[in-house]
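lol ok so funny story. i was supposed to be doing the assay writeup but got distracted and ended up predicting the structure for this chain instead. priorities right. anyway since i did it might as well share w the group, maybe its usefull for someone
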Amino acid sequence: MTRTLPNLVRQHRLELNTIMLVTLTSMVFIYPFDNHFRFTLGIAVLSTLLLYFPELPAVRFTIACGVCIVALRTAIYFFIGPEELDDTLFRHSPAFLYYVIFGILFKLLSIRTFIDNLPVAVLLLTLTDALSNLAELLLRPTLQPVSFDLILASIVSAGLVRSIITVYGYVLLKQYHAFVLEQNQLKHYAELTMMTAKLKTELFYLQKSSQDIENVMERSYWLYNQLNHNEDEAGNRESNSASALEIAREIHEVKKDYARVITGIENILKPSSLEQFMNLSEVLYIIEQNVRRYLASSNKAISITFDHTEDFKTGRHYTIVSLLDNLIMNAIDACGKSGHIRVLQTTSGTDIVFEVRDNGCGIHSQEIALVFQPGFSTKFSLQTGKISTGLGLSHVKNLTESLKGTVSVSSSIGKGARFMITIPREELIIREG
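and the output, tada:
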């Protein structure tokens, strides 16, 4: 399979970075016998990386690590020691054989294929480590008087310890990878849910507008019939009838276009069997993550808490997201640079209640009756000179009423505001079983 240039660049970067990591960690070591032979941490790191990155070529990678490690040791001891370069290189070069043998055995024993069976993986890694160490010892000068049994026991013990560290490190890396992947998926799902909720809101208003157009078209057609059958004193009956009919035709064309748009959006948003329902706790979590990302990006010192007394399953999750998101964004604007917002779900008889409270600037008593009117807004941008559209709370009111619910607000200047949405349980909760 031909690899593309970006993949080759990524592969070379991976190999270079991992070789540097193994080389540096190889400087963490102990001398078990004399000042020539050593056990290093680098081999545990090398083994872990070989298992975690299957694209790393075992033989080439370990040989490259061996070359870099011998070069680093030679350079360090040459500059800080009294030996000549030849003597220093001769003293450290046997370690190169260790990495050659290790890479060959790692590939021949196909250790990667046994990673799901951890005891077997530990056994094979221990065997590979021990045989590589024995091969290195064959090139070493005569050791201090040490029994072969002690040497073998030390080599096997070190191999076992490093193999256990390797497998444990591999498992931790896999778990961390799974955690990061899960977090990315949750973030993506939250963003997708927020986008879908906004589309659902727009679809609601398209459907509402379509019904309004239908009513206007019926009245226009009724006017056409009236004009067509009644005497017109000015003698313009025919002209007026034609104009009324033309209006009805144009509105009908608009209605057909709306119908096409609505059908298209409904097909796009048609939920699968897995996403038809969500628990309220999941909905609140998605909203919370979205709000916290917004607050972090806007550098506002605003805290927010979410509480719920009942974790029910609902098919109206997109509507709940739209309702609470609008109220929370209003609360953030009211708080300014700092403040606290609380989002709460409670139960009142046969109703589900959502509350959004803030300790922001509050609302004038004479404005409370107007806040849900389309176009009413007190938000003004000093930078652009534009006033807000004032549609957020109007959306909240219309969406709430579409679920046979009510929305209310209580507030006073300087003491924040409290918005409360009350919706009948049967409109929200899915009965299982």
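Residues 380-389 have pLDDT under 50 and may be disordered. The two ends are 51 Å apart (CA to CA).
back to the writeup now i swear
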